[in-house]
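User: Sequence recovery, please. Input:
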C-alpha cells in the first residue's frame, strides 16, 4: 500500500481568504455599466485546483479517476465538466482538476484511495491560480483580440481546452458553452489580465456578474 501525507491546506479558522482580484472589488461593479453588455465577466472565486499526474494509457488509472470523481478521464485538449467540477487534459500524463470551494482535500483523499498502488502525483495549486468566466455574444471577439490561437467554433468546439499565449502572457482557455469561455489564470498575473480584459471589452460593453 502506498502512503502519503495529505494535509488540509485551506484555513478552517476565521482567516480571511482573498481572491486574486480582490483589489478590483468586482462585487461593487455587479449590475453597473451598460444594460446589455456584449461581454460579461465573472470571477469564479477560491475554487479548489489540483494537478494530477499518472499513466493515462493505463486502464486502471482511468478507472480509478472515474471511481473517485464520477467523470471520465479526458483525452488531448479536452475538458470534462459536471457543474463546478471539471477535469482538463494538460499533457500526456497530467490533468487539472477544479472542484467546489473546500472540496479539494476530500477529493485528493478519494483519488489517493482509488489510485492506491499506482505511480501518481497530486498537487494542490489552489493558491496559485484562479478561474475567470467570459460570456456574452462578443466574448469570442475579445478572445480574438487577445490570442493568436484560432477560437473559431470549427477549431475550438465546446469541451476543448488549450494552454496558449494570451495578451503577451500565458494562460489556459476553455470553452464550456456556446457563448461561455473560461480562463485559468495565474494569481501573479490577475491584475494584468483584468486591465487587459477591460480594455479589450470596452467597445462591446463589459458587465460584471456575481
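Assistant: Recovered sequence (210 residues):
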Amino acid at each position: 500500500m502506498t502512503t502519503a501525507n495529505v494535509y488540509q491546506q485551506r484555513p478552517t479558522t476565521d482567516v480571511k481568504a482573498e481572491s486574486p482580484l480582490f483589489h478590483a472589488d468586482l462585487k461593487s461593479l455587479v449590475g453597473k455599466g451598460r444594460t446589455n453588455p456584449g461581454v460579461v465577466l465573472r470571477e469564479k472565486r477560491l475554487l479548489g485546483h489540483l494537478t494530477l499526474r499518472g499513466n493515462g494509457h493505463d486502464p486502471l488509472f482511468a478507472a480509478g479517476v472515474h471511481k473517485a470523481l464520477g467523470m471520465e478521464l479526458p483525452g488531448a485538449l479536452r475538458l470534462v465538466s459536471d457543474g463546478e467540477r471539471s477535469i482538463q487534459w494538460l499533457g500526456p500524463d497530467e490533468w487539472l482538476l477544479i472542484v467546489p470551494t473546500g472540496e479539494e482535500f476530500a477529493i485528493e483523499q478519494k483519488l489517493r484511495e482509488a489510485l492506491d498502488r499506482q505511480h501518481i502525483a497530486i498537487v494542490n495549486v489552489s493558491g496559485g491560480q484562479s478561474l475567470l468566466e467570459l460570456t456574452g455574444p462578443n466574448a469570442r471577439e475579445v478572445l480574438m483580440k487577445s490570442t493568436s490561437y484560432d477560437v473559431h467554433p470549427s477549431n475550438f468546439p465546446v469541451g476543448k481546452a488549450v494552454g496558449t499565449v494570451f495578451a503577451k502572457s500565458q494562460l489556459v482557455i476553455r470553452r464550456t458553452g456556446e457563448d461561455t469561455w473560461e480562463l485559468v489564470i495565474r494569481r501573479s498575473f490577475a491584475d494584468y489580465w483584468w486591465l487587459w480584459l477591460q480594455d479589450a471589452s470596452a467597445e462591446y460593453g463589459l458587465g460584471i456578474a456575481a
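The chain has four helices and eleven strands.
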